[in-house]
Amino acid sequence: MMRLLFLLVFLPVLLSGQRNFPADSVAGAAEEIFAIIKDRHPFAASMDGLKALEAARTQVQKEVMEAVGERDSITYPEFIKMMAPMQEVTGCGHLILEPHFDSLESRSIRENFLPLQMMLADDGRHVLMTGLRTTRDTFLPGTEVLAIEGEPVGPLMQSLSYFSGLNDQGNNRAGVMKIIRFPSTYYQWHYGLKKQLSLTLKNDAGEVSEEVILAKHKPFVDPKKVKTDISKTLTFRFSEDGQTGILDINKFSTYKFTNGNYFKFIRTVFDTLRQTNTQQLIIDIRDNGGGSSGRISALYRYLSDREFKFSSATISTGPARALPGERGKVARRRAAGAVTKKERRVQKALTRKIKPVKEELQFSGRVVVLVNELSFSASGIFARYVQGSGRGKLVGMPAGASAGITYGAKDDGKKIYVGPDDNFEIKVNTIGLVPEFPEPGNVTPDIAVPLTVSALRAGRDEQLERALEIVSGKK
Question: Please, what's the b/e burial string for 441-470 (b: 16 or more CB within 10 A of its CB; e: otherwise)?
Answer without folding.
Answer: ebbbbeeebebebebbeeeebbbbebbbeb
